[in-house]
């Protein structure tokens, strides 16, 4: 250290000599020849004129406001330093001077900033090594990460995309009318299509060029503060508490980052509550190549000796070669040079549950991104349970909204996420399990019935196994899973109503069903030729088409078609079954299917199943109306659920707690009353300091019992008076009701009935109190008399009397 001081003094002396020599040179007069100054008077005036036209606007200094802190209320540790802290500051100053001398190109170290009281404090003493009472604080501000995670788990399909159905071909007819020829030119159509494609391609190319131009403009903007920003981060080292690798934590957003992240350009220093380390490694490649071995003095220069440091991995082999004397000498050297870090001067941070739940000032936080805005709220701050909203914009000025995603918590309707697409008008609601209708996803453009919408359900919460329902003004498609009848698909085509009624008249005037298509999964208990794969009911035509499952060793499947007739024969009898009413295509013909009786039974069975399918489709329409009505009520009320452990928001729990406190208060008053001296008012009438005589004891006893008896009688009279008053009031109201019964309105009658029930209730309570008082009064009197006989102040006189 002395050699270093001498070297520093020599360099300072050399610098002073050089400065003096430069000062002498600057004092020499500068000799100039007149021919070197060709400037004329006219040129000087012109220069002065131009200079006078230049206006210099001096910017006003920024107004810096400091937080008003009452220093007098702060502890003494905030306002002054102890001797140990002063010694630490001297050590830090000496360390800073050596560091500035050895590393003149680096920025000064951040060692001892000023605190609230303008007192310098070493940075390590500002850390208070206490456990976090609310570890969830590190997870609240990770909503953006939750957005990506949630969207990766829950795909956002296009629910209004039509389902590709299998091509349905009508059975071949014997005679058919040829359609008219298409006289339009195919060449013109192709040219028009080609022209439209070229226009679309040109628009897409222009859009991409504009985006590319904006990106190039943004990239061309250089950051003047690149590499000059300094920020404090939290470094978590691996090893303890099962931490697998090193990582950073941003204290403002509570997000974690890897030490290999490109956003980190370098590290100046590290510190904790025990020591301070300076990074001596080269950060030309950012923080990717840094080695966080704090026990290596070559990479990390430490401030204090004798503190806990992570040992070098190479030193483990060297420790085995050290003898006992070296260890003892090393311990003595450390004892001589060690300096313990003073304890923290800051108070323990105390955050109330209410303040912690707000998570930010006023419970709201807005983060502006490029073409996006993220808004966050504390739970229960918004009446609808909204806690996060992500808005994406189409332009950089954030004026044209593209889509909105809203996250909810504690909703009674279990709504979790709402995705609004402004360009298409599509709204998608995502629900957690627990909705009364087992809703999982609801996609819609309007809440009006019989419009384009998609509903997805939690099939495990439904008895019918419905997992998805798609609805359009003319169709409704349902998908099932895990049903006992193996139904997996139902598609209903609707026709036009005969009369124009309201849209919510599905129950009174349902839409006429034109076609019902049902598909079934394979039933392994049945042969493939008898297991129906698809069933189509053509209701106006009274036809039913069946397609069976295809066997594994066949390439085609059997088909059947039934046609019900309402005609009569030549004799006037109704036609029940004829061979042409059933058309069969069987891969392997079976004898029993050719019999008319078997065909008639199959047709009657299909007729009943058609009625059942129509009824189930009608019930599905009613369920859609019920769900829409329920959703409107939920959106209007947007009730929030409150935990039973949240005593401040849960009204029932709050009422129960207040009732228990009232009971405990009354019990406390009874105990206090029991501890009161019931003889004190009567003993106070006697001369003070005089010994109690036999006659006086008897008088005190009689007066106490007489007074207690009178109080019991007064209480009974009071209850009786209140009972009579309630009776008179009730009689008056009854008389008023009898006189004005004909002219009373419904509200007056309701008020009278409410008053009557309350009055009768109060009279019953008073009657019960009076009866209870009559029963307990003698017992209380005898209990007081027994207490008086056992009272130590009267016992000797009363025993003699007895």
From TrEMBL:
Start-end of Basic and acidic residues biased regions: 17-34, 179-207, 329-339
Residue stretches in coiled coil: 590-635
One GO CC annotation: cytoskeleton
Compositionally biased residues, Acidic residues: 315-328
Stretches for region Disordered: 1-34, 165-207, 314-340
Organism: Ailuropoda melanoleuca
Name assigned to this protein: Dynein regulatory complex subunit 7
PANTHER family associated with the record: DYNEIN REGULATORY COMPLEX SUBUNIT 7
Chain segments annotated as transmembrane: none
């Amino acid at each position: 250290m002395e050699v270093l001081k001498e070297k520093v003094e020599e360099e300072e002396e050399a610098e002073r000599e050089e400065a003096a020599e430069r000062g002498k040179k600057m004092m020499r007069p500068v000799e100039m020849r007149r021919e070197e100054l060709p400037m004329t008077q006219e040129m000087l005036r012109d220069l002065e004129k131009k200079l006078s036209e230049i206006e210099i606007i001096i910017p006003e200094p920024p107004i810096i406001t400091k937080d008003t802190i009452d220093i007098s209320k702060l502890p003494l540790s905030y306002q002054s330093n102890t001797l140990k802290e002063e010694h630490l500051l001297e050590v830090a100053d000496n360390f800073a001077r050596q560091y500035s001398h050895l590393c003149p190109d680096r920025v000064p170290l951040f060692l001892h900033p000023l605190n609230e009281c303008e007192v310098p404090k070493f940075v390590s003493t500002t850390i208070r090594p206490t456990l976090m009472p609310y570890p969830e604080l590190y997870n609240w501000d990770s909503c953006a990460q939750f957005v990506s995670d949630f969207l990766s788990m829950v795909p956002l399909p296009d629910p209004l995309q039509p389902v590709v159905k299998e091509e349905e071909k009508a059975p071949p007819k014997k005679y058919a009318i040829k359609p008219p020829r298409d006289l339009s030119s195919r060449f013109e159509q192709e040219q028009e299509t080609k022209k439209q494609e070229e226009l679309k391609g040109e628009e897409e190319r222009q859009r991409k060029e504009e985006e590319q131009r904006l990106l190039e403009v943004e990239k061309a903007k250089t950051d003047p503060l690149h590499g000059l920003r300094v920020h404090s981060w939290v470094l978590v080292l691996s090893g303890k508490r099962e931490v697998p690798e090193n990582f950073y934590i941003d204290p403002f957003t509570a997000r974690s980052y890897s030490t290999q992240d490109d956003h980190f350009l370098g590290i100046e220093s590290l510190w904790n509550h025990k020591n301070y380390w300076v990074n001596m490694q080269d950060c030309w490649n950012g923080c990717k190549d840094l080695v966080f071995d704090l026990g290596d003095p070559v990479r990390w220069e430490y401030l204090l000796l004798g503190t806990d440091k992570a040992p070098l991995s190479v030193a483990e082999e060297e420790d085995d070669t050290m003898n006992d004397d070296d260890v003892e000498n090393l311990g003595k050297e450390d004892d001589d040079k060690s300096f313990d870090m003073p304890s923290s001067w800051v108070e323990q941070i105390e955050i109330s549950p209410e303040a912690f739940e707000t998570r930010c000032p006023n419970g709201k936080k807005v983060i502006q991104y490029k073409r996006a805005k993220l808004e966050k709220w504390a739970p229960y701050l918004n009446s609808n349970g909204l806690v996060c909203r992500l808005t994406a914009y189409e332009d950089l000025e954030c004026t044209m909204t593209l889509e909105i995603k809203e996250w909810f918590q504690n909703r009674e309707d279990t709504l979790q996420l709402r995705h609004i697409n402004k360009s298409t008008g599509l709204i998608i609601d995502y629900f957690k399990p627990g909705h009364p209708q087992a809703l999982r996803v609801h996609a819609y453009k309007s809440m009006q019935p019989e419009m384009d919408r998609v509903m997805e359900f939690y099939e495990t919460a439904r008895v019918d196994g419905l997992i998805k329902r798609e609805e359009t003004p003319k169709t409704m498609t349902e998908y099932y899973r895990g049903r006992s009848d193996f139904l997996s698909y139902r598609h209903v085509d609707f026709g036009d109503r005969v009369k124009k009624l309201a849209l919510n008249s599905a129950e009174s005037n349902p839409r006429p069903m034109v076609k019902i298509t049902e598909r079934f999964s394979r039933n392994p208990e049945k042969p493939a030729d008898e297991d129906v794969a698809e069933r189509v009911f053509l209701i106006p035509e009274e036809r039913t088409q069946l397609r069976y499952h295809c066997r594994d060793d066949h390439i085609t499947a059997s088909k059947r078609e039934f046609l019900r007739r309402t005609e009569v024969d030549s004799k006037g009898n109704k036609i029940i079954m004829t061979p042409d009413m059933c058309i069969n295509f069987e891969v392997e013909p079976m004898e029993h299917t050719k019999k008319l009786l078997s065909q008639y039974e199959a047709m009657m069975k299909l007729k009943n199943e058609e009625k059942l399918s129509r009824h189930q489709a009608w019930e599905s329409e009613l369920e859609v109306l019920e769900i829409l009505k329920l959703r409107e009520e939920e959106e209007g009320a947007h009730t929030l659920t409150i935990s039973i452990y949240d005593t401040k928001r849960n009204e029932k729990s709050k009422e129960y707690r207040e009732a228990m406190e009232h009971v405990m208060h009354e019990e406390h008053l009874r105990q206090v009353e029991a501890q009161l001296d019931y003889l004190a008012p009567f003993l106070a009438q006697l001369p003070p300091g005089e010994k109690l005589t036999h006659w006086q004891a008897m008088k005190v006893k009689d007066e106490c019992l007489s007074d207690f008896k009178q109080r019991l009688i007064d209480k009974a009279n009071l209850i009786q008076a209140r009972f009579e008053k309630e009776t008179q009031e009730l009689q008056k109201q009854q008389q008023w009701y009898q006189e004005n019964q004909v002219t009373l309105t419904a509200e007056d009658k309701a008020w009278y009935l409410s008053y009557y029930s309350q009055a009768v209730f109060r009279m019953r309570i008073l009657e019960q109190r009076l009866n209870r008082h009559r029963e307990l009064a003698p017992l209380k009197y005898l209990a007081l008399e027994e207490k008086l006989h056992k009272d130590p102040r009267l016992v000797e006189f009363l025993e003699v009397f007895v």
